Amino acid sequence: MHFTAPTPIQVQAIPPAMEGRDVLASAQTGSGKSAAFGLPILDALLDLPRGKTRALILAPTRELADQICSHLRLLAKHTDIRIASVYGGVAAGPQITALRTGADIVVATPGRLWDHMQSGKAPLKDVTTVVLDEADRMLDIGFLPIVRRILSRIESVRQILFFSATMPPAIHGLVKDILVDPVRVELALEAQNVETLTQKLYAVPQEHKTALFLELLKDDSISSAIAFTRTKARANRLAIALQRAQIPVALMHGDRSQGQRERALEHIKHGRVRVLVATDIAARGIDIHQLGHVVNFDVPMAPEDYVHRVGRTARAQAAGDAITFAADDEEPLIRRIEHIIGKRIERSVNPLFPEASVEAPKPRMVYQSKARRRR
Questions:
Q1: Model confidence pLDDT, tens digit, residues 215-240
Q2: 363 in a structural domain
Q3: Of the four listed, 123, 282, 329, 342, which is most buried by Cβ atoms within 10 Å?
C-alpha cells in the first residue's frame, strides 16, 4: 500500500487502541484514520477463531463504509479475516448471509444495520470493539439516536474508538455516555492548514458561476476535479452545462442509485471523466488519488463542510488546489470559513471581469427600526 511512515493520527491512536483503551480522536478525513483504528482491530483478531463478528465499524454514508471496507481488506490481505459491508441501496441477501455466518469485522451505516437488528438478522452478541467514524456527520443526518439504540443492544462491547472531524456540543453527551476514560487525540486544527494545499477565491455573481468554471477549465492543468454544489438540482444543472461544453463529467448526489454513485466514483478515480459534480455526499470518506482540484461551486453553509470538501485534494502530502466561487450573498459564509481555518483565503482576479477588485466586498448595512430589532 506504499506506506512508509505512520501519519500523526496513527502515531497517537494506535498504541492506546492496541492496549484496549477507548480513544476519542479529532482528525480530518485523509489523515489515515482507517489504518489508525483498523490495524489494532486486525492485530487483536489474528489469533482468535473465525466465525464470530467481533468488531463493528459505523459510518454515516455508504461511500465511506465501502471505502473503509476496501482499506481494511487491503490491510488484511495476508490473513483469513473476513470483512463485510452493510448499507442501504443494495440487495440485503448477501449482507444477511455475512452477518449470520459471522464476518469478523462488519462496516455498516446505522440505518441499514438497525433494520437488520430489528428483524433479528444481525447477531452481534460477540462484538467487543466498536468504531464510530465521522461521528459529527452522523449527527448532521440524524443517526445519533439510532447509534445509541445499536450500542444499547450490544452488551459485550469492551472498547469504543470514536473519530470525528469536529466535536459539536450535540455529540458531547454521546461521548460522555459511551466512552470510558478515553485517550484524547486532537489533530483537526493541524489538518485544516495543509501545507501542500493552495486555496483561492473568485468573487463572482451567481449567474456567472458556470461561465467562470468553463473559463477555468480551459486551463489543461485542471485535469481532475470535484465540483461541489449546495443542492441536487444545482448539481444536475451544472452537469448538463458541462456536458454541453463537451467536458467529460460524472454526477453524484442522494437521488442517484448506489450503482450510479459507484460508477461516478470509478470514472473520476480512473480518469474517465474530468469533473465529478457532487453534493456534500462526496465531501467525506472519498479517497481519490491524484485529485488535483476541488471547486466549491457553491460556498457550503457550514464552515466544517468546507474543510471536508477541500480535504478531498492534497491528501497524503500530495499537492492540490481548492477553488471557491463566492457571490456577494455568500461572503458572510466565507468569513466564517476563514475564522475556522485561521487564515484568509487568497482572492484571485476573475478572468470574466479582470477589471474588478479582488477584495471581498464589505457587508451592506441595512437599517432596522428599534422595534424590529427588539423583535
A1: 999 988 888 899 999 999 999 999 99
A2: no
A3: 282
Range of the domain at 162: 8-190
Q: Name the domain count of the chain.
A: 2
**Residue 194 Ramachandran class (φ > 0 left, ψ -120 to 50 alpha, else beta):** beta
pTM (predicted TM-score): 0.66
The CA-CA-CA angle for residues 108, 258, 93, to 5°, reads 55
Q: Output phi, psi for 359, to 5 deg.
A: -75, 145
pLDDT tens for 343-362 read 899 999 888 877 655 554 44
Over residues 65-86, mean pLDDT = 94
